[in-house]
Amino acid sequence: MGRMHADEHLIHTALVRRLLRGQFPRWADLPLERLASGGTVNAVYRLGDALTIRLPLTAAGAGDVAKEHRVLAVLEGLPVAVPEVAAVGEPAEGYPWPWAVHRWLDGEPAVEGDPAPGLAEFVLALRATRADGPPAYRGKPLATVDQATRGAIDELSRTDEPFDADAARAVWTEALEAPQWTGPPCWLHSDLMPGNLLLRDGRLAGVLDWATAGLGDPACDLVPAWNLLPAPARPVFRDAVGADDAAWARGRGWALSMAVLQLPYYRHTNPVISANARYVLGQLSCRPAPPSATPPRASSRRAPNTPR
């Protein structure tokens, strides 16, 4: 896989080993392996049997380390496991940003078509959290990403991707015209991509990557209805989370926006993200259905416990 970002920092095993020796010598001799990941923000390494290391790839992700640490500190009582921060590293050895060590969470990342039982219970439990928090990354009205989304639809229509731009614009217009959220801001994860959802025995057991979490419109956490669930599971999920027509339309809009922004950018560098974007567009009828009735699945599975 090629470099995803023009300003991506070169991260390699020898650098990570030097960072460990300088700051956490107790872990410096543990086995260290870079994990294959569909993530776009961090390089992720497994450290021994019980830890992972996450190092931001660009300056834009550097603030996520502190934000995720703060968010995880206030969340409690969720029905699934969440990462535990074991240590936070400092810039050193030519690496310019903070980095984090997390406890390993067991589980297999979800892939497109998984029904993920337990997902609705998690979304409702998170929504009911009463702790204070920052604004969620995608917790604002859809209008804040209108220009970017329309530009991405236009860009994608100029590629060789099978894509129905008119259908995408119709979905987007319906989402923008839906009544906005008028209730109090709710806790939401705001990046419930399949690779951030860990399954054990087929059931949701853990949720990774909390740097985007915070308070906002809960419709954004409806996105798994289109980026993960098979069509028959979609109405079951909707009923379980109590989504009205307006919330459902806004959630569909977020799913579309994420997909059309991701696919042009990552189509040649990140096969996992690209496959998921194509799946979303297929579920939204913005992409021709594949010849087989079997829903498409990601081209490569993401290694367990590898957040963004």
Instruction: Give, in order, the helices and strands.
Output: HEEEHEEEHHHEEEEHHHH
In the sheet with the most strands, the strands line up as: 1-2-3-5-4
Q: Tell me, what is the CATH class of the largest domain?
A: Alpha Beta
| CATH topology assignment of the largest domain | Aminoglycoside 3'-phosphotransferase, Chain: A, domain 2
What would the average pLDDT be, to the nearest integer?
Answer: 91
What is the global morphology? globular
Explain the overall architecture:
By secondary structure, the chain is of the alpha+beta class. 33% of the residues lie in helices and 14% in strands. It has two domains: 13-106, 2-Layer Sandwich (Phosphorylase Kinase, domain 1), CATH 3.30.200; 109-283, Aminoglycoside 3'-phosphotransferase, Chain: A, domain 2 (Alpha-Beta Complex). The protein has helices spanning 13-23, 64-74, 119-127, 146-157, 165-177, 224-227, 234-241, 245-266, 271-283; strands at 32-34, 42-47, 51-56, 85-89, 99-103, 108-109, 186-188, 197-200, 203-207, 214-216. The strands form three sheets. It has a five-stranded antiparallel beta sheet with strand order 1-2-3-5-4, sandwiched between helices. A hairpin with a 2-residue loop joins strand 8 (197-200) and strand 9. The longest helix is centred in the C-terminal third of the chain and has 22 residues, at 245-266. 45% of the residues are buried.
